[in-house]
Prior knowledge:
2 copies of one chain form a homodimer. Chain A is α/β, with parallel strands linked by helices.
Amino acid sequence: MERNMFREEIKVLDCTIRDGGLINNHYFTDEFVRAVYTAISASGVDYIEMGYRSSRQFAPQSEFGDWKYCDDDAISKIIDGVESNTKISIMIDAHRVSDQEFRPVDQSPVDLIRVATYVKDIDKAIALAKMCDDLGYETAVNIMAISAENQPDLVEALDQLASSPAETVCVVDSYGNFFSEDVHKMVKLYMDHLPGKRIGMHCHNNQQLAFANTIEGIRKGANMVDGSLYGIGRGAGNCPLELLVGFLKNPKFDIEPILKVIQDYMIPMRDEIEWGYLIPYAITGMLNQHPRSAIAMRKTANKDKYAEFYNEIIDVE
Amino acid sequence: MERNMFREEIKVLDCTIRDGGLINNHYFTDEFVRAVYTAISASGVDYIEMGYRSSRQFAPQSEFGDWKYCDDDAISKIIDGVESNTKISIMIDAHRVSDQEFRPVDQSPVDLIRVATYVKDIDKAIALAKMCDDLGYETAVNIMAISAENQPDLVEALDQLASSPAETVCVVDSYGNFFSEDVHKMVKLYMDHLPGKRIGMHCHNNQQLAFANTIEGIRKGANMVDGSLYGIGRGAGNCPLELLVGFLKNPKFDIEPILKVIQDYMIPMRDEIEWGYLIPYAITGMLNQHPRSAIAMRKTANKDKYAEFYNEIIDVE
Protein backbone atom coordinates (compact mmCIF):
# COMPACT_ATOMS: atom_id res chain seq x y z
CA MET A 1 0.00 0.00 0.00
CA GLU A 2 1.20 3.52 -0.71
CA ARG A 3 1.11 5.87 2.23
CA ASN A 4 2.75 9.06 3.21
CA MET A 5 3.48 9.80 6.83
CA PHE A 6 5.90 12.65 6.61
CA ARG A 7 5.48 15.66 8.84
CA GLU A 8 8.59 17.67 9.54
CA GLU A 9 7.39 18.60 13.03
CA ILE A 10 7.23 15.03 14.35
CA LYS A 11 9.99 14.40 16.87
CA VAL A 12 10.83 10.95 18.19
CA LEU A 13 12.08 10.33 21.70
CA ASP A 14 13.79 7.08 22.63
CA CYS A 15 13.06 6.13 26.25
CA THR A 16 14.97 2.82 26.27
CA ILE A 17 17.29 3.71 29.14
CA ARG A 18 14.72 5.62 31.19
CA ASP A 19 11.71 3.30 31.00
CA GLY A 20 13.87 0.17 30.69
CA GLY A 21 15.59 1.24 33.90
CA LEU A 22 12.32 0.76 35.76
CA ILE A 23 12.78 -3.00 35.27
CA ASN A 24 16.28 -3.29 36.74
CA ASN A 25 16.54 -0.34 39.12
CA HIS A 26 18.50 1.54 36.47
CA TYR A 27 21.52 -0.74 36.63
CA PHE A 28 22.60 -0.50 33.00
CA THR A 29 26.29 -0.72 32.19
CA ASP A 30 28.06 2.25 30.62
CA GLU A 31 28.82 0.01 27.64
CA PHE A 32 25.12 -0.63 27.04
CA VAL A 33 24.09 2.99 27.50
CA ARG A 34 26.80 4.14 25.14
CA ALA A 35 25.81 1.53 22.54
CA VAL A 36 22.20 2.71 22.73
CA TYR A 37 23.20 6.37 22.54
CA THR A 38 25.44 5.66 19.54
CA ALA A 39 22.70 3.73 17.70
CA ILE A 40 20.00 6.29 18.47
CA SER A 41 22.29 9.07 17.27
CA ALA A 42 23.07 7.21 14.04
CA SER A 43 19.38 6.52 13.42
CA GLY A 44 18.50 10.22 13.43
CA VAL A 45 16.07 9.91 16.37
CA ASP A 46 15.58 13.35 17.91
CA TYR A 47 15.81 12.75 21.66
CA ILE A 48 17.15 10.10 23.99
CA GLU A 49 15.96 9.88 27.57
CA MET A 50 18.65 8.64 29.93
CA GLY A 51 16.68 8.14 33.14
CA TYR A 52 15.49 10.04 36.16
CA ARG A 53 17.10 12.86 38.07
CA SER A 54 16.08 11.46 41.45
CA SER A 55 16.89 12.70 44.90
CA ARG A 56 19.38 10.47 46.72
CA GLN A 57 17.34 11.18 49.82
CA PHE A 58 14.31 9.34 48.38
CA ALA A 59 16.32 6.90 46.27
CA PRO A 60 19.30 5.61 48.27
CA GLN A 61 22.39 5.14 46.17
CA SER A 62 22.85 1.61 47.50
CA GLU A 63 19.66 0.52 45.72
CA PHE A 64 19.93 2.03 42.26
CA GLY A 65 22.18 2.35 39.28
CA ASP A 66 23.47 5.61 37.79
CA TRP A 67 20.42 6.22 35.60
CA LYS A 68 18.20 6.79 38.59
CA TYR A 69 20.12 10.04 39.12
CA CYS A 70 21.36 11.05 35.68
CA ASP A 71 24.10 13.25 37.03
CA ASP A 72 25.39 15.60 34.37
CA ASP A 73 28.86 14.09 34.66
CA ALA A 74 27.58 10.53 34.20
CA ILE A 75 25.79 11.60 31.02
CA SER A 76 28.82 13.51 29.73
CA LYS A 77 30.97 10.42 30.19
CA ILE A 78 28.60 8.40 27.97
CA ILE A 79 28.16 10.86 25.14
CA ASP A 80 31.73 12.11 24.97
CA GLY A 81 33.21 11.56 21.51
CA VAL A 82 30.04 10.20 19.86
CA GLU A 83 28.90 12.10 16.77
CA SER A 84 25.29 13.03 17.41
CA ASN A 85 22.49 15.46 16.76
CA THR A 86 20.28 13.68 19.28
CA LYS A 87 19.18 15.79 22.21
CA ILE A 88 19.40 14.49 25.77
CA SER A 89 16.32 14.21 27.94
CA ILE A 90 15.90 13.33 31.59
CA MET A 91 12.76 12.85 33.66
CA ILE A 92 11.90 14.06 37.12
CA ASP A 93 9.01 12.90 39.30
CA ALA A 94 6.96 15.80 40.61
CA HIS A 95 5.87 13.76 43.62
CA ARG A 96 9.39 12.72 44.58
CA VAL A 97 11.49 15.86 44.44
CA SER A 98 13.80 16.98 47.17
CA ASP A 99 17.49 17.74 46.79
CA GLN A 100 17.98 17.27 43.05
CA GLU A 101 20.29 19.80 41.50
CA PHE A 102 20.14 21.38 38.11
CA ARG A 103 22.90 23.43 36.54
CA PRO A 104 22.02 26.07 33.97
CA VAL A 105 21.51 24.45 30.59
CA ASP A 106 24.79 25.71 29.14
CA GLN A 107 26.71 23.87 31.86
CA SER A 108 24.79 20.60 31.36
CA PRO A 109 24.63 17.94 28.62
CA VAL A 110 20.86 17.84 29.13
CA ASP A 111 18.54 19.60 26.67
CA LEU A 112 15.05 18.55 27.75
CA ILE A 113 13.60 17.95 31.20
CA ARG A 114 10.30 16.06 31.37
CA VAL A 115 8.32 16.31 34.56
CA ALA A 116 6.18 13.25 35.33
CA THR A 117 3.21 13.95 37.54
CA TYR A 118 -0.19 12.79 38.65
CA VAL A 119 -3.09 15.19 38.29
CA LYS A 120 -3.02 15.86 42.03
CA ASP A 121 0.60 17.06 41.88
CA ILE A 122 0.16 19.38 38.94
CA ASP A 123 1.13 22.48 40.95
CA LYS A 124 4.47 20.92 41.87
CA ALA A 125 4.98 19.86 38.26
CA ILE A 126 4.35 23.37 36.99
CA ALA A 127 6.74 24.84 39.57
CA LEU A 128 9.42 22.39 38.45
CA ALA A 129 8.83 23.12 34.79
CA LYS A 130 9.17 26.82 35.58
CA MET A 131 12.43 26.26 37.45
CA CYS A 132 13.85 24.22 34.55
CA ASP A 133 12.62 26.73 32.01
CA ASP A 134 14.34 29.51 33.97
CA LEU A 135 17.58 27.51 33.77
CA GLY A 136 17.22 27.41 29.98
CA TYR A 137 16.04 23.81 29.42
CA GLU A 138 13.30 22.68 27.09
CA THR A 139 10.51 21.41 29.31
CA ALA A 140 7.67 18.94 29.05
CA VAL A 141 5.04 17.64 31.44
CA ASN A 142 3.75 14.04 31.40
CA ILE A 143 0.51 13.54 33.30
CA MET A 144 0.35 9.88 34.24
CA ALA A 145 -2.52 7.43 34.75
CA ILE A 146 -5.09 9.60 32.98
CA SER A 147 -7.25 6.60 32.06
CA ALA A 148 -8.13 6.40 35.76
CA GLU A 149 -8.63 10.14 36.38
CA ASN A 150 -11.87 12.05 36.46
CA GLN A 151 -11.98 14.10 33.33
CA PRO A 152 -12.94 17.41 35.03
CA ASP A 153 -9.84 17.15 37.25
CA LEU A 154 -7.71 16.40 34.20
CA VAL A 155 -9.17 19.36 32.34
CA GLU A 156 -8.39 21.64 35.28
CA ALA A 157 -4.79 20.42 35.25
CA LEU A 158 -4.54 21.03 31.50
CA ASP A 159 -5.93 24.54 31.92
CA GLN A 160 -3.26 25.25 34.54
CA LEU A 161 -0.58 23.86 32.24
CA ALA A 162 -1.78 26.11 29.43
CA SER A 163 -0.18 29.13 31.08
CA SER A 164 2.95 27.27 32.26
CA PRO A 165 6.27 27.49 30.41
CA ALA A 166 6.24 23.75 29.46
CA GLU A 167 6.45 23.59 25.67
CA THR A 168 5.19 20.00 25.45
CA VAL A 169 2.52 18.06 27.28
CA CYS A 170 2.42 14.32 26.81
CA VAL A 171 -0.65 12.06 26.64
CA VAL A 172 0.42 9.07 28.74
CA ASP A 173 -1.44 5.75 28.77
CA SER A 174 0.17 4.45 31.96
CA TYR A 175 -2.06 1.40 32.27
CA GLY A 176 -2.06 0.40 28.61
CA ASN A 177 -5.83 0.74 28.64
CA PHE A 178 -6.49 3.03 25.68
CA PHE A 179 -8.11 2.08 22.39
CA SER A 180 -7.90 4.32 19.34
CA GLU A 181 -11.03 6.26 20.21
CA ASP A 182 -9.55 7.14 23.61
CA VAL A 183 -6.36 8.38 21.99
CA HIS A 184 -8.36 10.48 19.57
CA LYS A 185 -10.38 12.00 22.39
CA MET A 186 -7.36 12.69 24.58
CA VAL A 187 -5.21 14.27 21.89
CA LYS A 188 -8.13 16.51 20.95
CA LEU A 189 -8.76 17.39 24.60
CA TYR A 190 -5.09 18.28 25.12
CA MET A 191 -4.94 20.32 21.93
CA ASP A 192 -8.13 22.18 22.79
CA HIS A 193 -6.94 23.08 26.28
CA LEU A 194 -3.27 23.70 25.46
CA PRO A 195 -3.28 26.07 22.51
CA GLY A 196 0.16 26.56 21.03
CA LYS A 197 1.77 23.68 22.91
CA ARG A 198 3.21 20.56 21.39
CA ILE A 199 1.36 17.34 22.28
CA GLY A 200 3.30 14.16 22.97
CA MET A 201 2.32 10.47 23.14
CA HIS A 202 3.66 7.82 25.49
CA CYS A 203 1.91 4.46 25.16
CA HIS A 204 2.18 1.17 27.00
CA ASN A 205 1.88 -2.18 25.28
CA ASN A 206 -0.35 -4.17 27.63
CA GLN A 207 -2.88 -4.86 24.88
CA GLN A 208 -0.41 -4.79 21.97
CA LEU A 209 -1.69 -1.33 21.13
CA ALA A 210 1.31 0.89 21.93
CA PHE A 211 2.42 1.28 18.31
CA ALA A 212 -1.14 1.52 16.99
CA ASN A 213 -2.06 4.16 19.56
CA THR A 214 1.11 6.14 18.88
CA ILE A 215 0.16 6.26 15.20
CA GLU A 216 -3.36 7.36 16.11
CA GLY A 217 -1.88 10.13 18.24
CA ILE A 218 0.28 11.24 15.31
CA ARG A 219 -2.73 11.24 13.00
CA LYS A 220 -4.58 13.52 15.38
CA GLY A 221 -1.68 15.95 15.70
CA ALA A 222 0.75 14.67 18.34
CA ASN A 223 4.23 15.78 17.34
CA MET A 224 6.47 14.22 19.96
CA VAL A 225 6.26 10.46 20.26
CA ASP A 226 8.05 8.01 22.51
CA GLY A 227 9.43 4.64 21.54
CA SER A 228 11.98 2.22 22.97
CA LEU A 229 14.23 -0.43 21.49
CA TYR A 230 12.30 -3.69 21.07
CA GLY A 231 9.61 -2.05 23.21
CA ILE A 232 11.62 -2.29 26.46
CA GLY A 233 9.97 -0.78 29.51
CA ARG A 234 8.37 -1.75 32.77
CA GLY A 235 5.69 -4.44 32.49
CA ALA A 236 4.39 -4.69 28.95
CA GLY A 237 6.80 -2.00 27.79
CA ASN A 238 6.42 0.77 25.26
CA CYS A 239 5.93 1.44 21.56
CA PRO A 240 8.72 -0.40 19.72
CA LEU A 241 11.03 2.25 18.28
CA GLU A 242 11.86 0.04 15.28
CA LEU A 243 8.20 0.00 14.21
CA LEU A 244 7.83 3.73 14.71
CA VAL A 245 10.90 4.53 12.63
CA GLY A 246 9.72 2.06 9.99
CA PHE A 247 6.40 3.91 9.83
CA LEU A 248 7.62 7.51 9.71
CA LYS A 249 8.65 8.59 6.27
CA ASN A 250 11.07 11.38 7.18
CA PRO A 251 14.25 10.42 5.27
CA LYS A 252 16.41 11.60 8.16
CA PHE A 253 15.60 8.35 9.98
CA ASP A 254 17.68 5.22 9.43
CA ILE A 255 16.37 1.94 10.83
CA GLU A 256 19.56 -0.06 10.36
CA PRO A 257 21.47 1.09 13.49
CA ILE A 258 18.31 0.35 15.46
CA LEU A 259 18.10 -3.21 14.12
CA LYS A 260 21.79 -3.69 14.89
CA VAL A 261 21.63 -2.57 18.51
CA ILE A 262 18.53 -4.70 19.04
CA GLN A 263 20.29 -7.82 17.79
CA ASP A 264 23.49 -7.07 19.70
CA TYR A 265 22.04 -5.91 23.01
CA MET A 266 18.27 -6.16 23.38
CA ILE A 267 17.83 -9.81 22.41
CA PRO A 268 20.45 -11.03 24.93
CA MET A 269 19.03 -8.62 27.55
CA ARG A 270 15.50 -10.02 27.07
CA ASP A 271 16.84 -13.34 28.38
CA GLU A 272 17.99 -11.57 31.56
CA ILE A 273 15.15 -9.17 32.31
CA GLU A 274 11.50 -9.47 31.30
CA TRP A 275 9.26 -7.04 29.44
CA GLY A 276 6.66 -7.07 26.69
CA TYR A 277 3.30 -8.64 25.95
CA LEU A 278 2.41 -11.15 28.62
CA ILE A 279 -1.08 -12.17 29.70
CA PRO A 280 -0.99 -10.68 33.24
CA TYR A 281 -0.17 -7.24 31.77
CA ALA A 282 -2.94 -7.66 29.21
CA ILE A 283 -5.33 -8.33 32.10
CA THR A 284 -4.33 -5.23 34.13
CA GLY A 285 -4.55 -3.18 30.93
CA MET A 286 -8.07 -4.42 30.13
CA LEU A 287 -9.13 -3.74 33.71
CA ASN A 288 -7.54 -0.26 33.76
CA GLN A 289 -5.25 -1.04 36.66
CA HIS A 290 -1.66 -0.22 37.53
CA PRO A 291 0.54 -3.16 36.45
CA ARG A 292 2.05 -3.63 39.91
CA SER A 293 -0.02 -6.74 40.70
CA ALA A 294 1.06 -8.31 37.40
CA ILE A 295 4.71 -7.39 37.94
CA ALA A 296 4.55 -8.96 41.41
CA MET A 297 2.93 -12.22 40.22
CA ARG A 298 5.54 -12.57 37.44
CA LYS A 299 8.15 -12.91 40.19
CA THR A 300 6.41 -15.89 41.80
CA ALA A 301 6.15 -19.58 40.95
CA ASN A 302 2.59 -18.89 39.79
CA LYS A 303 3.71 -16.48 37.08
CA ASP A 304 1.76 -18.34 34.39
CA LYS A 305 -1.43 -18.93 36.36
CA TYR A 306 -3.42 -16.44 34.34
CA ALA A 307 -6.95 -17.59 35.12
CA GLU A 308 -6.27 -17.52 38.87
CA PHE A 309 -4.69 -14.07 38.60
CA TYR A 310 -7.66 -12.78 36.62
CA ASN A 311 -10.13 -14.11 39.18
CA GLU A 312 -8.15 -12.61 42.05
CA ILE A 313 -8.00 -9.13 40.64
CA ILE A 314 -11.60 -8.97 39.44
CA ASP A 315 -12.67 -10.06 42.94
CA VAL A 316 -10.81 -7.14 44.49
CA GLU A 317 -12.59 -4.58 42.37
CA MET B 1 -12.28 4.80 30.29
CA GLU B 2 -15.91 3.92 29.58
CA ARG B 3 -16.56 2.39 26.23
CA ASN B 4 -19.23 0.30 24.66
CA MET B 5 -18.35 -2.19 21.97
CA PHE B 6 -21.42 -4.33 21.83
CA ARG B 7 -22.90 -5.27 18.49
CA GLU B 8 -24.97 -8.42 18.40
CA GLU B 9 -23.91 -9.17 14.82
CA ILE B 10 -20.20 -9.48 15.56
CA LYS B 11 -19.07 -13.10 15.28
CA VAL B 12 -15.66 -14.27 16.42
CA LEU B 13 -13.78 -17.10 14.72
CA ASP B 14 -10.91 -18.84 16.44
CA CYS B 15 -8.27 -19.97 13.93
CA THR B 16 -5.79 -21.46 16.43
CA ILE B 17 -5.72 -24.93 14.95
CA ARG B 18 -5.92 -23.83 11.32
CA ASP B 19 -3.36 -21.01 11.21
CA GLY B 20 -1.25 -22.53 14.00
CA GLY B 21 -1.05 -25.69 11.90
CA LEU B 22 0.90 -23.77 9.28
CA ILE B 23 3.83 -23.71 11.71
CA ASN B 24 4.01 -27.45 12.39
CA ASN B 25 2.49 -29.04 9.27
CA HIS B 26 -0.76 -29.51 11.18
CA TYR B 27 0.67 -32.07 13.59
CA PHE B 28 -1.43 -31.22 16.64
CA THR B 29 -2.38 -33.98 19.05
CA ASP B 30 -6.02 -34.88 19.51
CA GLU B 31 -5.60 -33.93 23.18
CA PHE B 32 -4.56 -30.41 22.23
CA VAL B 33 -7.26 -29.94 19.62
CA ARG B 34 -9.91 -31.18 22.02
CA ALA B 35 -8.63 -28.86 24.79
CA VAL B 36 -8.82 -25.91 22.40
CA TYR B 37 -12.27 -26.89 21.16
CA THR B 38 -13.49 -27.29 24.75
CA ALA B 39 -12.10 -23.90 25.81
CA ILE B 40 -13.40 -22.09 22.74
CA SER B 41 -16.83 -23.64 23.28
CA ALA B 42 -16.86 -22.59 26.95
CA SER B 43 -15.79 -19.05 26.06
CA GLY B 44 -18.79 -18.49 23.78
CA VAL B 45 -16.68 -17.85 20.68
CA ASP B 46 -18.84 -18.39 17.60
CA TYR B 47 -16.66 -20.43 15.24
CA ILE B 48 -13.57 -22.61 15.48
CA GLU B 49 -11.51 -23.34 12.39
CA MET B 50 -9.89 -26.77 12.51
CA GLY B 51 -7.60 -26.65 9.53
CA TYR B 52 -7.62 -27.23 5.79
CA ARG B 53 -9.50 -29.74 3.72
CA SER B 54 -6.55 -30.48 1.45
CA SER B 55 -6.19 -32.95 -1.33
CA ARG B 56 -3.95 -35.89 -0.41
CA GLN B 57 -2.71 -35.73 -3.99
CA PHE B 58 -1.17 -32.28 -3.39
CA ALA B 59 -0.43 -32.82 0.30
CA PRO B 60 0.96 -36.33 0.84
CA GLN B 61 -0.23 -37.92 4.03
CA SER B 62 3.34 -38.79 5.04
CA GLU B 63 4.14 -35.07 5.42
CA PHE B 64 1.19 -33.67 7.32
CA GLY B 65 -0.94 -34.14 10.40
CA ASP B 66 -4.70 -34.69 10.45
CA TRP B 67 -5.59 -31.00 10.37
CA LYS B 68 -4.26 -30.60 6.87
CA TYR B 69 -7.21 -32.71 5.73
CA CYS B 70 -9.92 -32.14 8.33
CA ASP B 71 -11.78 -35.30 7.48
CA ASP B 72 -15.28 -35.23 8.86
CA ASP B 73 -14.57 -38.27 11.00
CA ALA B 74 -11.43 -36.73 12.52
CA ILE B 75 -13.44 -33.68 13.52
CA SER B 76 -16.31 -35.75 14.88
CA LYS B 77 -13.88 -37.67 17.09
CA ILE B 78 -12.66 -34.38 18.64
CA ILE B 79 -15.99 -32.74 19.28
CA ASP B 80 -17.88 -35.80 20.42
CA GLY B 81 -19.31 -35.33 23.90
CA VAL B 82 -18.24 -31.69 24.36
CA GLU B 83 -21.04 -29.27 25.15
CA SER B 84 -20.81 -26.53 22.57
CA ASN B 85 -22.64 -23.91 20.56
CA THR B 86 -19.49 -23.16 18.58
CA LYS B 87 -19.74 -23.80 14.86
CA ILE B 88 -17.03 -25.69 12.99
CA SER B 89 -15.15 -24.09 10.13
CA ILE B 90 -12.63 -25.51 7.69
CA MET B 91 -10.62 -23.79 4.98
CA ILE B 92 -9.90 -24.84 1.42
CA ASP B 93 -7.30 -23.36 -0.91
CA ALA B 94 -8.79 -22.42 -4.28
CA HIS B 95 -5.42 -22.87 -5.98
CA ARG B 96 -4.81 -26.33 -4.53
CA VAL B 97 -8.02 -28.24 -5.04
CA SER B 98 -8.22 -31.68 -6.55
CA ASP B 99 -9.82 -34.71 -4.97
CA GLN B 100 -11.22 -33.25 -1.75
CA GLU B 101 -14.58 -34.62 -0.80
CA PHE B 102 -17.49 -32.88 0.82
CA ARG B 103 -20.55 -34.58 2.22
CA PRO B 104 -23.83 -32.71 2.38
CA VAL B 105 -23.86 -30.47 5.45
CA ASP B 106 -26.30 -32.65 7.38
CA GLN B 107 -23.84 -35.57 7.18
CA SER B 108 -20.85 -33.49 8.30
CA PRO B 109 -19.79 -31.83 11.58
CA VAL B 110 -18.67 -28.82 9.52
CA ASP B 111 -20.84 -25.69 9.39
CA LEU B 112 -18.72 -23.14 7.52
CA ILE B 113 -16.32 -23.58 4.62
CA ARG B 114 -13.95 -20.70 3.93
CA VAL B 115 -12.28 -20.59 0.54
CA ALA B 116 -8.84 -18.96 0.54
CA THR B 117 -7.82 -17.53 -2.80
CA TYR B 118 -5.59 -15.08 -4.61
CA VAL B 119 -7.24 -12.53 -6.85
CA LYS B 120 -6.13 -14.50 -9.91
CA ASP B 121 -7.98 -17.63 -8.75
CA ILE B 122 -11.25 -15.91 -7.94
CA ASP B 123 -13.21 -17.92 -10.52
CA LYS B 124 -12.12 -21.18 -8.90
CA ALA B 125 -12.95 -19.75 -5.48
CA ILE B 126 -16.43 -18.79 -6.59
CA ALA B 127 -17.04 -22.22 -8.13
CA LEU B 128 -15.97 -23.84 -4.84
CA ALA B 129 -18.16 -21.54 -2.79
CA LYS B 130 -21.07 -22.45 -5.05
CA MET B 131 -20.40 -26.16 -4.67
CA CYS B 132 -20.26 -25.82 -0.86
CA ASP B 133 -23.35 -23.64 -0.82
CA ASP B 134 -25.21 -26.27 -2.85
CA LEU B 135 -24.24 -28.84 -0.22
CA GLY B 136 -25.81 -26.63 2.45
CA TYR B 137 -22.71 -25.14 4.12
CA GLU B 138 -22.23 -21.53 5.14
CA THR B 139 -19.53 -20.17 2.86
CA ALA B 140 -16.92 -17.43 2.98
CA VAL B 141 -14.16 -16.29 0.68
CA ASN B 142 -10.81 -14.94 1.93
CA ILE B 143 -8.84 -13.05 -0.72
CA MET B 144 -5.21 -13.19 0.34
CA ALA B 145 -2.26 -10.82 -0.11
CA ILE B 146 -4.42 -7.85 -1.08
CA SER B 147 -1.81 -5.33 0.11
CA ALA B 148 0.24 -6.40 -2.92
CA GLU B 149 -2.59 -6.49 -5.48
CA ASN B 150 -3.54 -3.84 -7.98
CA GLN B 151 -6.73 -2.29 -6.75
CA PRO B 152 -8.61 -2.51 -10.09
CA ASP B 153 -8.01 -6.28 -10.17
CA LEU B 154 -9.19 -6.56 -6.58
CA VAL B 155 -12.31 -4.54 -7.36
CA GLU B 156 -13.09 -6.81 -10.30
CA ALA B 157 -12.79 -9.84 -8.02
CA LEU B 158 -15.08 -8.23 -5.46
CA ASP B 159 -17.64 -7.45 -8.16
CA GLN B 160 -17.62 -11.10 -9.21
CA LEU B 161 -18.01 -12.18 -5.59
CA ALA B 162 -21.00 -9.86 -5.19
CA SER B 163 -23.18 -12.26 -7.19
CA SER B 164 -21.69 -15.43 -5.70
CA PRO B 165 -23.41 -17.39 -2.92
CA ALA B 166 -20.61 -16.69 -0.37
CA GLU B 167 -22.25 -14.96 2.60
CA THR B 168 -19.00 -13.56 3.98
CA VAL B 169 -15.92 -12.04 2.36
CA CYS B 170 -12.87 -11.51 4.54
CA VAL B 171 -10.37 -8.65 4.38
CA VAL B 172 -7.05 -10.46 4.84
CA ASP B 173 -3.78 -8.67 5.61
CA SER B 174 -1.53 -11.57 4.66
CA TYR B 175 1.72 -9.63 4.94
CA GLY B 176 0.91 -7.73 8.13
CA ASN B 177 1.41 -4.52 6.21
CA PHE B 178 -1.80 -2.60 6.94
CA PHE B 179 -2.14 0.51 9.07
CA SER B 180 -5.52 1.70 10.31
CA GLU B 181 -6.14 3.87 7.26
CA ASP B 182 -5.66 0.84 4.99
CA VAL B 183 -8.14 -1.19 7.03
CA HIS B 184 -10.66 1.64 6.85
CA LYS B 185 -10.25 1.89 3.08
CA MET B 186 -10.46 -1.85 2.51
CA VAL B 187 -13.51 -2.46 4.68
CA LYS B 188 -15.27 0.41 2.93
CA LEU B 189 -14.22 -0.92 -0.49
CA TYR B 190 -15.51 -4.40 0.37
CA MET B 191 -18.78 -3.06 1.77
CA ASP B 192 -19.33 -0.83 -1.26
CA HIS B 193 -18.76 -3.66 -3.73
CA LEU B 194 -20.40 -6.45 -1.75
CA PRO B 195 -23.83 -5.12 -0.78
CA GLY B 196 -25.65 -7.37 1.66
CA LYS B 197 -22.63 -9.54 2.42
CA ARG B 198 -20.92 -9.84 5.78
CA ILE B 199 -17.36 -8.50 5.88
CA GLY B 200 -14.68 -10.35 7.85
CA MET B 201 -11.22 -9.37 9.12
CA HIS B 202 -8.13 -11.55 9.32
CA CYS B 203 -5.01 -9.67 10.44
CA HIS B 204 -1.37 -10.65 10.86
CA ASN B 205 0.79 -9.34 13.66
CA ASN B 206 4.05 -8.46 11.91
CA GLN B 207 3.91 -4.87 13.12
CA GLN B 208 2.00 -5.55 16.35
CA LEU B 209 -1.12 -4.23 14.66
CA ALA B 210 -3.28 -7.35 14.33
CA PHE B 211 -5.51 -6.53 17.31
CA ALA B 212 -5.58 -2.80 16.53
CA ASN B 213 -6.50 -3.44 12.89
CA THR B 214 -9.17 -5.95 13.86
CA ILE B 215 -10.76 -3.30 16.07
CA GLU B 216 -10.57 -0.78 13.24
CA GLY B 217 -12.29 -3.28 10.97
CA ILE B 218 -15.04 -3.74 13.56
CA ARG B 219 -15.48 0.03 13.87
CA LYS B 220 -15.98 0.28 10.13
CA GLY B 221 -18.53 -2.52 10.02
CA ALA B 222 -16.72 -5.85 9.84
CA ASN B 223 -18.86 -8.43 11.60
CA MET B 224 -16.78 -11.59 11.48
CA VAL B 225 -13.35 -11.35 13.06
CA ASP B 226 -10.57 -13.88 13.43
CA GLY B 227 -8.38 -14.39 16.46
CA SER B 228 -6.17 -17.17 17.78
CA LEU B 229 -5.02 -18.22 21.22
CA TYR B 230 -2.00 -16.15 22.29
CA GLY B 231 -1.87 -15.00 18.66
CA ILE B 232 -0.59 -18.34 17.32
CA GLY B 233 -0.16 -18.52 13.55
CA ARG B 234 2.51 -18.71 10.91
CA GLY B 235 5.24 -16.11 11.24
CA ALA B 236 4.12 -13.20 13.38
CA GLY B 237 0.76 -14.85 13.98
CA ASN B 238 -2.71 -13.41 14.29
CA CYS B 239 -4.89 -11.20 16.43
CA PRO B 240 -4.71 -12.58 19.99
CA LEU B 241 -8.14 -14.01 20.78
CA GLU B 242 -7.77 -13.11 24.47
CA LEU B 243 -7.48 -9.40 23.60
CA LEU B 244 -10.40 -9.54 21.20
CA VAL B 245 -12.68 -11.21 23.74
CA GLY B 246 -11.51 -8.71 26.38
CA PHE B 247 -12.49 -5.88 24.05
CA LEU B 248 -15.91 -7.08 22.89
CA LYS B 249 -18.65 -6.32 25.36
CA ASN B 250 -21.12 -9.03 24.41
CA PRO B 251 -21.82 -10.75 27.75
CA LYS B 252 -21.98 -14.14 26.03
CA PHE B 253 -18.16 -14.16 25.93
CA ASP B 254 -16.14 -15.50 28.86
CA ILE B 255 -12.39 -14.88 28.87
CA GLU B 256 -11.55 -17.29 31.67
CA PRO B 257 -11.50 -20.57 29.67
CA ILE B 258 -9.31 -18.77 27.14
CA LEU B 259 -6.79 -17.72 29.81
CA LYS B 260 -6.79 -21.26 31.18
CA VAL B 261 -6.08 -23.01 27.88
CA ILE B 262 -3.34 -20.47 27.13
CA GLN B 263 -1.58 -21.18 30.42
CA ASP B 264 -2.02 -24.94 30.11
CA TYR B 265 -1.19 -25.42 26.43
CA MET B 266 -0.03 -22.32 24.55
CA ILE B 267 2.77 -21.25 26.89
CA PRO B 268 4.43 -24.70 26.85
CA MET B 269 3.84 -24.91 23.07
CA ARG B 270 5.56 -21.55 22.50
CA ASP B 271 8.76 -23.18 23.82
CA GLU B 272 8.45 -25.86 21.12
CA ILE B 273 7.30 -23.91 18.07
CA GLU B 274 7.86 -20.24 17.29
CA TRP B 275 5.37 -17.51 16.42
CA GLY B 276 4.67 -13.90 17.26
CA TYR B 277 6.38 -10.53 17.05
CA LEU B 278 9.97 -10.96 15.92
CA ILE B 279 12.06 -8.41 14.05
CA PRO B 280 12.36 -10.35 10.74
CA TYR B 281 8.56 -10.52 10.48
CA ALA B 282 8.32 -6.82 11.30
CA ILE B 283 10.72 -6.16 8.42
CA THR B 284 8.78 -8.20 5.84
CA GLY B 285 5.58 -6.54 7.07
CA MET B 286 7.02 -3.03 6.66
CA LEU B 287 8.29 -3.94 3.21
CA ASN B 288 4.97 -5.53 2.16
CA GLN B 289 6.50 -8.92 1.46
CA HIS B 290 5.44 -12.50 2.06
CA PRO B 291 7.03 -13.69 5.33
CA ARG B 292 8.71 -16.70 3.71
CA SER B 293 12.20 -15.13 3.74
CA ALA B 294 11.82 -14.33 7.44
CA ILE B 295 10.50 -17.81 8.26
CA ALA B 296 13.50 -19.30 6.43
CA MET B 297 16.09 -17.13 8.18
CA ARG B 298 14.59 -17.96 11.60
CA LYS B 299 15.59 -21.59 10.95
CA THR B 300 19.27 -20.72 10.45
CA ALA B 301 22.11 -19.85 12.81
CA ASN B 302 21.72 -16.22 11.68
CA LYS B 303 18.18 -15.99 12.98
CA ASP B 304 18.95 -12.86 15.00
CA LYS B 305 21.04 -11.03 12.37
CA TYR B 306 18.37 -8.47 11.70
CA ALA B 307 20.44 -5.73 10.08
CA GLU B 308 21.97 -8.19 7.60
CA PHE B 309 18.54 -9.63 6.79
CA TYR B 310 17.13 -6.15 6.24
CA ASN B 311 19.96 -5.22 3.90
CA GLU B 312 19.56 -8.44 1.95
CA ILE B 313 15.87 -8.06 1.31
CA ILE B 314 15.94 -4.37 0.46
CA ASP B 315 18.70 -5.12 -2.04
CA VAL B 316 16.52 -7.69 -3.80
CA GLU B 317 13.67 -5.26 -4.34
